């Protein structure tokens, strides 16, 4: 802790508390994630340390940079770049976004996910809370490594209000999954940004699972044909038929 001043608490994620901080002797503002060791199995902590190490080697303009990490007797502390805004907050305040703004966010998230998937890294916990906004509207994806270190059961329990709104059919059915599960989640997030709520939405977890597996998506009338076609490619129940790389990069909606 002797390298950082800890300022105010700026959030609480499924992994612990997040504080705004400043690197000593510099003006560099950072985010410090304090992940408690207590109550975590040794295997999970080992995974976490490995993930942090992997994240320190990833560099992409749309991914939150992992700058440093250290441990105290009670916590693993991850130091990342600090991003001012949260996509989740914009949804809470404004309800939804105009399509051209969703398009800009989509292009940036596609770029970030392509980079992660090309490095054989799955996110597994894509949701608006894990998308931050930097200066000038730059979108930053965060928390992917932490999500990989947790078991799927932990993720379901820690997802918003315990409802896995962005989880793909194969994940909720506990079938084998790959990077296509992230692409389903991306479709859900972009749909929510435009419509104001995810494509499958209910407070009952059992009902939600059933909707995700069986229900067709309801398409709003004011969505452009390109956007609708793009989401129709992502929100396919069968992961093998989902729009994926490299075709995804060349879709007219994000080109």
Automatic annotation (TrEMBL):
Q: Which reaction does it catalyse?
A: L-seryl-[protein] + ATP = O-phospho-L-seryl-[protein] + ADP + H(+); L-threonyl-[protein] + ATP = O-phospho-L-threonyl-[protein] + ADP + H(+)
Q: Record-annotated residues binding ATP?
A: 33
Q: Cellular component terms, GO, for this chain's entry? A: cytoplasm; cytoskeleton
Say which domain of life the source belongs to.
Eukaryota
Which compartment or compartments is the protein found in? Cytoplasm, Cytoskeleton
What keywords is this UniProt entry annotated with? ATP-binding, Cytoplasm, Cytoskeleton, Kinase, Nucleotide-binding, Serine/threonine-protein kinase, Transferase
Q: Could you tell me which Pfam families the record lists for this protein? A: Pkinase (PF00069)
**One function term, GO molecular function aspect:** protein serine/threonine kinase activity
What InterPro entries does the record point to?
Answer: Kinase-like_dom_sf (IPR011009), Prot_kinase_dom (IPR000719), Protein_kinase_ATP_BS (IPR017441), Ser/Thr_kinase_AS (IPR008271)
Q: Which SUPFAM superfamilies match?
A: Protein kinase-like (PK-like) (SSF56112)
- What EC number(s) does the entry state? 2.7.11.1
Record-annotated Protein kinase domain positions: 4-254
Which family does the similarity line name?
Answer: Belongs to the protein kinase superfamily.
What name is this protein filed under? non-specific serine/threonine protein kinase
Question: From which lineage does this chain's organism come?
Answer: Eukaryota, Metazoa, Chordata, Cephalochordata, Leptocardii
User: By which gene is this protein encoded?
Assistant: Fusedb
């Amino acid at each position: 802790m002797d390298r950082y001043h800890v300022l105010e608490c700026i959030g609480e994620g499924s992994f612990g508390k997040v504080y705004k901080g400043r690197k000593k002797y510099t003006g560099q503002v950072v985010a410090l994630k304090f992940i408690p060791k207590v109550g975590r199995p040794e295997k999970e902590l080992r995974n976490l340390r490995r993930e942090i190490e992997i994240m320190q080697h990833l560099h992409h303009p749309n991914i939150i940079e992992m700058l440093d990490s250290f441990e105290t007797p009670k916590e693993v502390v991850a130091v990342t770049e600090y991003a001012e805004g949260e996509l989740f907050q914009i949804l809470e305040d404004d309800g939804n976004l105009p399509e051209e703004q969703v398009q800009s966010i989509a292009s940036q998230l596609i770029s970030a996910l392509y980079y992660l998937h090309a490095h054989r890294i799955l996110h597994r916990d894509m949701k608006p809370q894990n998308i931050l906004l930097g200066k000038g509207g730059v979108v930053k994806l965060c928390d992917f490594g932490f999500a990989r270190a947790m078991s799927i059961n932990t993720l379901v329990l820690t997802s918003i209000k315990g409802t896995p709104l962005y989880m793909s059919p194969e994940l909720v059915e506990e079938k084998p999954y790959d990077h296509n599960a992230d692409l389903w989640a991306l479709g859900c997030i972009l749909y929510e940004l435009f419509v104001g709520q995810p494509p499958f939405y209910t407070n009952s977890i059992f009902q939600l699972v059933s909707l995700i597996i069986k229900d067709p998506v309801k398409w709003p009338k004011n969505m452009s044909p390109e956007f609708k076609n793009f989401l129709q490619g992502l929100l396919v129940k069968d992961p093998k038929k989902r729009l994926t790389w490299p075709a995804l990069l060349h879709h007219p909606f994000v080109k």
